[in-house]
Write a structure and sequence with these properties.
The chain is of the alpha/beta class and 253 residues long. It is 45% helix and 15% strand. GO terms for molecular function: oxidoreductase activity.
Length: 253
Amino acid sequence: MKIAGQVAIVTGGASGLGAATARRLAAEGAKVGILDFDGDGAAAMAREIGGMAVKTDVGLEASVADAVAEVKQRLGAPRIAVSCAGIGLAGRVVGRDGALSTDLFEKTIRVNLMGTYYVMSHAAREMMALEPLESGERGVVVNTASVAYEDGQIGQVAYSASKGAIASMCLPAAREMAKQGVRVMAIAPGLFNTPMMEGLPQETVDGIVANVPFPHRLGDPAEYAQLVCQILDSPYLNGSVIRLDGAVRLPQR
């Protein structure tokens, strides 16, 4: 799919992977709608790239539905939807003090998994109503899993479960939407230099980087955005999860 002139939705577009993706898509000529819980951050990014912003809680279907409708009204129906919004809360199933983390698990599933599903559902419905492009495509959905779906660490049961489900639904969603010309892909990033990482002490970051074989560094969010564009540009990529991780395999802790 040629990106120029297309309407794109990016969730979590105010920071991190989402911000890099919004910038790259805009640079490629897309009209970008930024959906983020941080309304002020989304508005700032929209001003920077010439897009639009909608304060959105992806964990609430009504909020997603309203946001997609607003993007459609102001920019047009989307052909591109990239879900980067998510949370990375950590907690043991049973803590050392015996406390349970069921509330953390439920919140993580709601934001990461249900949020991704809501965005995919509402965006894909709009894509399916569009006329196909010359390639036969009507749209592309790119969801964000994580290497934690395969390499989940202690304390990441909730996060790994949410990202594992995102990875698992990629193929059946792609198969379901194939007749309508909508492709579905997932990216599983490794250790990236995002705001979450920037808040850690340097010695902690150094310990994390020590596990990355090559390149021996944290990933750059721009590299995630680059892969999004490569997926959009490659029509035979469909129904797959791509690890973007510098060959890292996370240890148990």
